[in-house]
Automatic annotation (TrEMBL):
PANTHER family: 2,5-DIKETO-D-GLUCONIC ACID REDUCTASE, NADP-DEPENDENT OXIDOREDUCTASE DOMAIN-CONTAINING PROTEIN. Belongs to the aldo/keto reductase family. Residues 21-259 form the NADP-dependent oxidoreductase domain. This is Aldo/keto reductase. Keywords: NADP, Oxidoreductase. Transmembrane segments: none annotated. It comes from the Bacteria. Pfam families: Aldo_ket_red (PF00248).
Amino acid sequence: IQSTITLNNGTVIPQVGLGVFQTPDGETTVNAVTAALEAGYRHIDTAMIYGNEASVGEGLRRSGVPRDDVFVTTKLWNDDIRARRGRDAFEESLDRLGLDYVNLYLIHWPADGWSQAWDDLQAIYATGRAKAIGVSNFERHHLEELLAHTDVKPAVDQIESSPQFANQQLIDFAHAQGIDVEAWSPLGGTGGNLLADPQLAEIGDKYGKSAAQVVIRWHIQRGVVVLPKSTHTERIRQNIDVFDFNLTDADMAAIDAIDTGKRNGADPDHFDF
Ligand code: A2P
């Protein structure tokens, strides 16, 4: 009973996916992926730079869940964008994953050369080996530039978004263009203090839910795809057990009010990696 969103090219994406940024390669990632698939996740979000694509593929195979039932995303890294290696880098990602297609392939950051990389993604999309293509960490001006030139509209923009940095104007702009949004660091990220906010626990108490579940539910109700990360089986299970309650408008407004307007992660207009 997971909710899904239909992307602008008709591809269906489960609204909660397991994020594996900073999940160590090897058994930790294999176990996180198998635990997620056993808990009912059907969406895993990785990237070349996370260094764990092979373990994501291994976890998928070990779970016994049919490949076609799972939505797999990976991303083209900045060095490969700058080196104009989009098509080769895509093949290398598929090889590491041990898959013959991904569901979504993203430009990871708007690094120099992204516009040529986008041409590579369009060519890959035409072969059917990426069922959808999109971008990540694109600000409004990047999206405007892309939309002015592209034949294929990006299906998604994956951006930082949490109650502390809602990024709502960018989300509204993307939605108005028919581009869906995926939230990274949706729980405020590693080492964040968001989940300790007593307001979240208080809201959760009304429904028998944790602060993390409340935040994930907030993302779902504002219509974005949410990619919580955990390496703990119990939390992985908890983070998808969010389809049996509804936040009220007042709950949503209280969580909206947490916004500080300050990012936890890198600024897409000034990053140095
Ligand atoms: P861990 O991997 O040790 O479980 P984000 O998804 O915003 O990047 O945040 C992930 C951070 O929140 C990680 O540090 C993760 O730690 C922690 N986390 C994930 N799910 C939960 C949960 N249900 N309860 C508490 N902390 C969580």
